[in-house]
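Summary of Year 1 activities. Much of the first year was spent building the evaluation harness for sequence design. The harness presents a backbone, in tokenized form, and records the residue chosen at every position. We chose the following record to illustrate the format because it has been used consistently in internal testing since the harness was completed.
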């Protein structure tokens, strides 16, 4: 695998200064306020998004009218909370446990309702495998949508927790833009621009340029978080009802892995010489690195077939590379009386080659006393991810002192890299979704048929393939009272293919599951107050976990039930968002709680406007 080339951001950006301030309690480094100036800034809609239409539903229906739990995190909230990545933007969403590892240069982490989530971009799956792609830069996003609970009926195989769908910034018809600079702790420096508008006088050609350059250290010594984003897009509207958009996303992140996996003694438990500092780096400066690069081409096409019917398709080609050279403290290592520990040395080069697409026909029509929004579509994904130059040397990375690390003890001579098996997924799904209204009653249903094939492409010997046909369903019923209160109940299913063997010569069974949910949604007439509450019960079958023997696996079940509440309120000078989540997540076999799942989450974010040009934000989270 080739080394990632160094690049320069092709924009020279000017510095403009105005004022904004916020406070945030997340564990990531403190960052000084973003400063920005905009031309013809759009009026803020605040944090109330219940009346918005989320693309995750694949229907032109507002969130308030869907009998399923869904959260939309808009650009206002992303900016006001100072979110530096997707997991930061989700910290205050109900039902979501985000950023479990705190500062983490490896990627974005989130569990929805106690289970893993799938990550999508513009309605297409984005993450295949692990640590082989660049995390999506949050500055390139218009919003982030969270669909809670199983969603295979719309997206095929996926995690039972739900999905996180990021929505890219695309060209707009009105000229607008911003250029800003940011400085912060740990020598963090960012320069960014977002400019959009018509490229021709007749408005048939629109453009947008989103760019960002970052140089930054982190709270961990010798760990950098540098990178750039370049995301130009162009929209062509040759005639009324026809739109074609091409989006290019080029990203590169360079630095090191921030997670040092320090031992329990000296962190949670007393160490031989006291507490080990969170800034401690156990790798080798100049050798450890975690460099990633990706290039994406996304095509959006919309064609009006009549006044009520539209054909839409989105397709994306993604190629990414990641190069990892890393040390960490050996798992289970106990520091000596002087603080010495042994290290693991690790290398791997990863790459992905992914094509996926979704095409559907959507329309609205009346049938007797019923009103329908109907979508019929097909989606396809073909993904390959590779691992080369792999070496895992437990105990072979030399010795380092946690209290006074002395570098230069690199033991790279032990590395004997090998190529690992490649993995591939190919899936085709056909789906139909219908949103039916009968007066105040809403009946939302969907059905999907999938053919999925997951493959392990062996370096030596025979390949392993699993082929699976699945039919998934979803149905929900809602009643909308005139006072804005809408109670609902729903049922949904999901499945996820598992790669690899079961240790007995067979392949792993697909993980399947379903969810029963009941809740209420409320939106005030003036759109200033939104309340969502839900109770849910999820059953997961054939969950993959560690087996009784070292290196073995077994498939067991899990049961998750709980409830969540989210309130958004907007006054003239103050906005607030409160969320509460209660979870009971247990292993169906051992009856133990699932690991890395919070029992209870409480969050509260506030923003107050001070005069015409200043605003102050502050938030708190309890886990």
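For this record, the design step produced the sequence shown next.
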């Amino acid at each position: 695998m080739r080394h990632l080339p160094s690049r320069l951001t092709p924009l020279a950006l000017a510095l403009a200064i105005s004022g904004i301030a916020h406070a945030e309690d997340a564990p990531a480094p403190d960052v000084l306020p973003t400063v920005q100036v905009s031309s013809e800034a759009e009026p803020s809609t605040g944090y109330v998004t219940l009346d918005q239409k989320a693309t995750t539903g694949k229907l032109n229906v507002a969130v308030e009218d869907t009998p399923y739990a869904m959260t939309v995190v808009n650009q206002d909230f992303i900016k006001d909370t100072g979110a530096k990545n997707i997991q930061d933007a989700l910290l205050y969403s109900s039902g979501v446990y985000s950023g479990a590892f705190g500062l983490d240069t490896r990627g974005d982490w989130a569990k929805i309702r106690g289970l893993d989530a799938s990550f999508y971009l513009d309605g297409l799956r984005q993450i295949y495998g692990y640590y082989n792609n660049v995390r999506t830069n949050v500055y390139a996003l218009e919003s982030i949508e969270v669909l809670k609970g199983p969603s295979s009926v719309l997206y095929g195989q996926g995690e039972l927790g739900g999905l996180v769908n990021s929505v890219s910034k695309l060209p707009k018809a009105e000229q607008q833009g911003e250029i800003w600079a940011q400085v912060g702790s740990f020598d963090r420096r960012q320069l960014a621009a977002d400019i959009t508008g018509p490229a021709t006088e007749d408005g048939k050609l629109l453009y947008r340029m989103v760019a960002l350059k970052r140089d930054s250290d982190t709270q961990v010594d010798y760990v950098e978080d540098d990178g750039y984003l370049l995301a130009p897009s162009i929209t062509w509207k040759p005639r009324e009802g026809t739109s074609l958009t091409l989006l290019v996303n080029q990203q590169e992140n360079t630095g090191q892995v921030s997670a040092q996996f320090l031992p329990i003694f000296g962190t949670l438990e007393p160490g031989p010489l006291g507490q080990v500092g969170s800034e401690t780096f156990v790798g080798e400066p100049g050798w450890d690195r975690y460099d990633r690069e990706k290039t994406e081409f996304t095509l959006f096409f919309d064609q009006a077939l009549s006044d009520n019917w539209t054909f839409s398709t989105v397709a994306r080609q993604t190629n990414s590379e990641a190069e990892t050279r890393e040390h960490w403290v050996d798992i289970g290592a106990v520091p000596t009386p002087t603080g010495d520990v042994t290290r693991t040395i690790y290398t791997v080069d990863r790459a992905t080659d992914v094509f996926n697409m979704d095409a559907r026909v959507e329309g609205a029509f009346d049938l007797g006393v019923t009103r329908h929004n109907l979508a019929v579509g097909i989606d396809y994904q073909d993904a390959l991810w590779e691992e080369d130059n792999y070496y895992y040397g437990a105990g072979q990375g030399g010795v380092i002192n946690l209290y006074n690390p002395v570098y230069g003890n690199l033991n790279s001579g032990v590395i004997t890299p090998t190529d690992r098996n490649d993995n591939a997924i190919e899936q085709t799904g056909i789906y139909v979704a219908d949103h039916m209204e009968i007066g105040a009653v809403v009946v939302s249903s969907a059905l999907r048929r999938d053919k999925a094939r997951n493959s392990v492409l062996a370096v030596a010997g025979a390949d392993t393939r699993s082929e699976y046909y699945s039919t998934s369903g979803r149905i929900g019923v809602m009643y909308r009272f005139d006072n804005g209160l809408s109670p609902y109940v729903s049922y949904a299913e999901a499945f996820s293919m598992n790669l690899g063997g079961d240790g007995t010569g067979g392949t792993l069974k697909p993980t399947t599951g379903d969810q029963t949910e009941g809740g209420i949604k409320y939106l005030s007439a003036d759109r200033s107050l939104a309340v969502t509450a839900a109770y849910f019960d999820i059953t997961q079958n054939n969950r993959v976990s560690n087996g009784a023997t070292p290196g073995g696996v077994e498939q067991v079940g899990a049961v998750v039930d709980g409830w969540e509440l989210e309130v958004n309120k907007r006054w003239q000078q103050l906005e607030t968002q409160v969320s509460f989540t209660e979870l009971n997540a247990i292993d169906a076999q051992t009856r133990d709680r699932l690991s890395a799942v919070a029992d209870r989450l409480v969050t509260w974010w506030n923003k107050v406007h001070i005069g015409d040009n200043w605003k102050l934000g502050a938030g708190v989270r309890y886990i």
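The first strand starts at residue 21 and ends at 22. Quantitative recovery figures across the full test set are reported in Table 2.
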